[in-house]
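Inputs:
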Amino acid sequence: MKKIRLFTPGPVMVPEDVMLHMAQPIEHHRTSFYRDMLADVTDHLKYLFQTDHADPMVITGSGTAAGEAAIVSSVHAGKNKVLNFNNGKFGERWGKVCKAFGLACVDQEVEWGTGVDPAVVEKMMNADPKIDTVICVHSETSTATLSDIAAIGKITQARNALLIVDCITSCGCLPMKFDEWGVDIAFTGSQKALMLPPGLGLCCVAPKAWRRIDEAECPAFYNDLKAYRKAVRTWDNPYTPANTLVLGLQKVLHGVKQRGLENIWKETRMLADATRAAATAIGMKVYSKSPSDSVTAMLVPDGVDEAALRKTMRSAYGMQIAGGQGDLKGKVVRIGHMGYIDIGDTLAAIGALELTLKGLGHKFELGAGLRAAQEVFAKAL
Amino acid sequence: MKKIRLFTPGPVMVPEDVMLHMAQPIEHHRTSFYRDMLADVTDHLKYLFQTDHADPMVITGSGTAAGEAAIVSSVHAGKNKVLNFNNGKFGERWGKVCKAFGLACVDQEVEWGTGVDPAVVEKMMNADPKIDTVICVHSETSTATLSDIAAIGKITQARNALLIVDCITSCGCLPMKFDEWGVDIAFTGSQKALMLPPGLGLCCVAPKAWRRIDEAECPAFYNDLKAYRKAVRTWDNPYTPANTLVLGLQKVLHGVKQRGLENIWKETRMLADATRAAATAIGMKVYSKSPSDSVTAMLVPDGVDEAALRKTMRSAYGMQIAGGQGDLKGKVVRIGHMGYIDIGDTLAAIGALELTLKGLGHKFELGAGLRAAQEVFAKAL
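Outputs:
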């Protein structure tokens, strides 16, 4: 017997009770049932994003749809200028979105595996006063790297610039404080910390961002946030929503509230700490210089074939881990800590990783990773 | 006890076994499991669209996302000119998409409740040779009205123009023959004839449309069909797909193949015929002059309050029917025949409609609608 376990940094495993909850007879979205649900979801999303004054909205689409909505609604061609940081595949993607829509954008490359340096943000904004919008990925999934949004928020706030944050693999598992940090638009997806199937994008928009959005027409239709704002006022959606996923979202958000975000942040950090300790103990270097707690990227040891490693993890142990993306293809493997993953799952993944590496000829003491992880758990609990 | 039954023209009821199938442990989309599934789904989608040579693609989003993708990928600003027909809320929407993206578009109003007249298409194209793209809704959901795509396809083919068809409430329940009719791009959604929850848009693109698409850059990112074409070549998606819905899609498409599209078309027509006969028998006029078989719009009798009618249908009998949209608000109710609806459901809806109308003071012979429907069934079976 092999259970399939996803340690990919999205989609992640979905709790069985959430799956069955979503399997109940479908409801129409223009009913009091759905309107009550959307009102409750919106209220809970404010807690998730840690905001009192911003508006969370649900978009049917991948996280990329939510990111496009954030950017094209608030950055106006011929009026605004973006500073975007490319320190991984997703930072790179937001630069591509700006380009596709013909938006003025300084696409700043940052060494992959390092966070965005707030001092660089400050310097670049000082050098080019036309920059009035900063796009930054909070937790860059491709390199498992965290950037300091709190520090960047201070810089954008001081200049009255807009701060758009991709918190796709941070919101709901790492501290992400929309109001306190001065974020203007944040977006995430359903298949990460929210442990739902993919298909929902979530956008949270502050009043300052709405003022910017209202300054010009949006060059897109489906991803125009104004249509979502108008609809949500009557607990509606502008286009037919993925309502079974919204039903699941409600259930998950109730669970998040009950567990408490701070507890979830601590737990995620503990799982990441344990995995990093295990990696070091078995001679695998953590790739990122500023590691995120939602996913860990580990350099594959010399002499070990990365594809064989992932293949064996899946075929022998049912464990789906992720490889590298872009330039990191073949060089790293990634193991996630978001969502429906606990201590048991994490020990299972580390144990299988050790067995796989042993089979592929890597030299280390079998069990050293598991013991290092246990020590982290023993100290934390 | 009241079972909730959806007769809304999307979302429709989802078969229980499909719901439970989608509730199985989630798989990652970059696995052989998912790639095999997407290859099989793509193959079956060709049957659904009735095409040998075109490429079906799956987009995570509402049907509107798929429509936007079809339009903005193939109509280039400053190069092409669209003739769009507004004979209902959805025809109106595609005109708005053209406008949002700054595309040249003749937005032709047609009396709501009537189909698009092929003679008008021909006349308008003759009068303006710059028109090289026609957008037409096959089954206009808001007015329950069918247009003759086969005839319009002959006109666009003769002029080498592109024909983009919204077949959101036709594909999979009414005859829709992509190749035979000369359609160049067609799109639909998951929550109609495919009887899945909302969240997937499906686009089918012919080689002629690909050539047009390749003539210029797309002004959007998420809804750029070129990204989907590139990804599907390796059975991948450009952005994380709503993979539980794709799993459901596979199951539904296997069922469609097994039942046979022609049989499904006949069944849908029978349910629509029965509902129209029932409406006439109880003094409710069918609204459309060219009725679609996927949904029936009926004029609410004088003296009956439309909101009270729908409310009672729901509160007393658990039946969710749809009201009118736009100018038809308060004037019509709509009952769907797509997807997971059978003779029993249709009789149940007609019976409840009679009881509701009786309670609201409408004068007719109780049971006359049910008998008229039975007569249609008796003749058809």
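Remarks. DSSP finds 14 helices and 14 strands in chain A. Chain A has a mean pLDDT of 97.
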